Amino acid sequence: MTQPVLSVRDLKVEFVTRRGVLKAIDGVSFDIAPGEVLGVVGESGAGKSVTGSAVIGLIEPPGRIAGGEIRLKGERIDNLPPEAMRRIRGKRIGMIFQDPLTSLNPLYTVGEQLVETIRTHLPLSAGQARRRAIDLLAEVGIPAPERRIDGYPHEFSGGMRQRVVIALALCAEPELVIADEPTTALDVSVQAQIITLIKRLCAERGTAVMLVTHDMGVIAETADRVAVMYSGRIAEIGPVRDVVKRPLHPYAVGLMGAIPSLEGQADRLVQIRGSMPRLSAIPPGCAFHPRCERAFARCSVDRPSPLDRDGRKVACHLYDEAQAEAAS
Amino acid sequence: MLAFIIRRLVQSIGVLLAVAFIAFAMFRFVGDPVNQIVSIEASPEERAQIRESLGLNDPFVVQFARYVGRAAQLDFGISYQFRQPVTKLLGERMPATLELAFVSAVFALVVGIPMGVYTALRRDSWLAKLFQAVSLVGVSLPTFLIGILLIYVFAVTLGWLPSFGRGEVVRIGDWWTTGFLTASGLRALILPSITLGMFQMTLIMRLVRAEMLEVLRTDYIKFARARGLTRRAINFGHALKNTLVPVITITGLQLGSIIAFAIITETVFQWPGMGVLFLQAVQNVDIPIMAAYLLLIAFLFVVINLAVDLLYAVVDPRLKVSVRAA
Ligand SMILES: Nc1ncnc2c1ncn2[C@@H]1O[C@H](COP(=O)(O)OP(=O)(O)O)[C@@H](O)[C@H]1O
Ligand code: SF4
Ligand SMILES: [Mg+2]
């Protein structure tokens, strides 16, 4: 088996607030293989962005990584000194944020921002860096890049700005790209193009992708594997076909059920009742149990640990029981 | 760009006309100018004759037009107290005030911006907290008190610096006298500039701090971090530049207030500037000087505003476009 690009083990992230220590991420583990696209889904507040920030080393006080390990190509990066981690950001891990309208500094041309980033990470002259910036802009589909490179961000449309952001994330050929809801803020008409672009560019370069999105359709089309997050934990993670078509975890079942299918079969549209608990009030046992239709006594006491099941990992006692039954 | 400048110029002229109207109205409603000129024993006939010769019997509009016309040629009439042209009196004192205001503004910027940046970046250090405390004092202490305290400490007790006057000045051309070229002139500038610039300095420091903290929270700073830029590039290349956009505006406007508020500092330090002249004029109801001073300050405000707008457009590319479109 090839070494994963990213390997996260038992990650814990906490925010120290006046009302106590909030556990935003509590024991998350996953791998991303070279060239693989891992989709990350879950209701807002599930911890998707915090996981991404932890990986790229951007958890700021009052937040802190409280436990676990993050490895990039086998090398620990969660405990690196700030300067060493800075060199990894942008060079080995690229990041694409949600809102392209606010991701770029309004006072610098896109060329200045590209050249600055390229020269921070690569030993190129100003001229070479500019050449590379123009090539990148062409590659992300900006027309007339030789001219547009001297434009300011406000002179670009939202979709075009997100292309610039993608160019910035990829400009030093990172091994991993974290795309945090890269299309949520965009016009529906350009969302598919941007996703296709990210997928194509990363596939060409063999770049692994952690793709956070709300859009199950995007996950189904783009991701190789998918992780379903709930209350700072992974409920289910596995190959996208299995998890989307035949989810095992009751929360994943509800989430997948919430996507209307193409044929408009209304019966698939089930709503999960209630809402995700606040961090200050995560229930004991399985965090999902107050909302779970299939919860039983053990669920409110024992926290389920991830179990290997049908080629995926599921954190749910139902499958533990099944195992126990099968064994007996 | 040209259209923008023209539009702003027209607005500026409108503002100046409005101020000229107020200045002119003072002549009409504050005392009778004839009383200022003739002796108390003058006969009613004599008074009427002077009235006529001064054009005071003409319709209001004609008198106003005449006043504006003369003001445009820098003729503000004769001072009641000194029996000399107001233009000459103000002109003699202008360099003192402008040099003081300039040094105060430089002091406020050169000290205020770094202090603001430092307190934003090192929020929890004791030095940042000290700066914050000092700035509170600077904002709340009245100018004259700061001046008197500085005089007491550095002039009276320590004897390091002079407590009044401009020191030795050098004449440049017909119109300008400068204190920048002599040691005593430079020394004399120190205490008054600190006094005058203190409020603006603390204001700029607090503004820079607040703006900087705001900018550091923005998405593009987060993205700059995610791109692995160095801390220096992020703090000074990206954050500070964005911070300075609003700071330029405020500072520019403050420069106008520095000139206007020089009155108090000039009084405390017996600084031979326009502010002291204005105060004397108020005490003696010397309307031509008061009116001219008012117009001059309004003119400076307008010019500074215009300069700030243009500078703003140079710094912020988003405005260049809207300015071009206007
Ligand atoms: N700076 C912070 N301070 C306190 N809580 C935070 C902070 N950032 C995120 N959180 C909390 O962490 C949890 C996960 O947030 P996030 O990862 O942004 O969710 P999402 O899955 O929608 O991206 C949320 O409950 C959020 O309130
Ligand atoms: S562990 Fe229990 S409560 Fe949690 S998802 Fe499974 S069945 Fe539902
Ligand atoms: Mg998020």
TrEMBL record, chain A:
Keywords: ATP-binding, Cell membrane, Membrane, Nucleotide-binding, Transport. It is found in: Cell inner membrane. Residues 8-256 form the ABC transporter domain. GO terms for molecular function: ATP binding; ATP hydrolysis activity. One of its GO terms (biological process) is transmembrane transport. It is a peripheral membrane protein. GO terms for cellular component: plasma membrane. InterPro entries: AAA+_ATPase, ABC_Ni/Peptide_Import, ABC_transporter-like_ATP-bd, ABC_transporter-like_CS, Oligopep_ABC_C, P-loop_NTPase. Its main location: membrane. Belongs to the ABC transporter superfamily. PANTHER family: DIPEPTIDE TRANSPORT ATP-BINDING PROTEIN DPPD, OLIGOPEPTIDE TRANSPORT ATP-BINDING PROTEIN APPD. This is Peptide/nickel transport system ATP-binding protein. It comes from Chelatococcus composti.
UniProtKB/TrEMBL annotation, chain B:
Keywords: Cell membrane, Membrane, Transmembrane, Transmembrane helix, Transport. It is a multi-pass membrane protein. It is found in: Cell membrane. Residues 94-312 form the ABC transmembrane type-1 domain. InterPro entries: BPD_transp_1_N, MetI-like, MetI-like_sf. GO terms for cellular component: plasma membrane. Pfam families: BPD_transp_1 (PF00528), BPD_transp_1_N (PF19300). Its main location: membrane. GO terms for biological process: transmembrane transport. It comes from the Bacteria. The chain crosses the membrane at residues 12-30, 100-121, 133-155, 175-199, 244-269, 289-315. Belongs to the binding-protein-dependent transport system permease family. This is Peptide/nickel transport system permease protein. It comes from Chelatococcus composti.
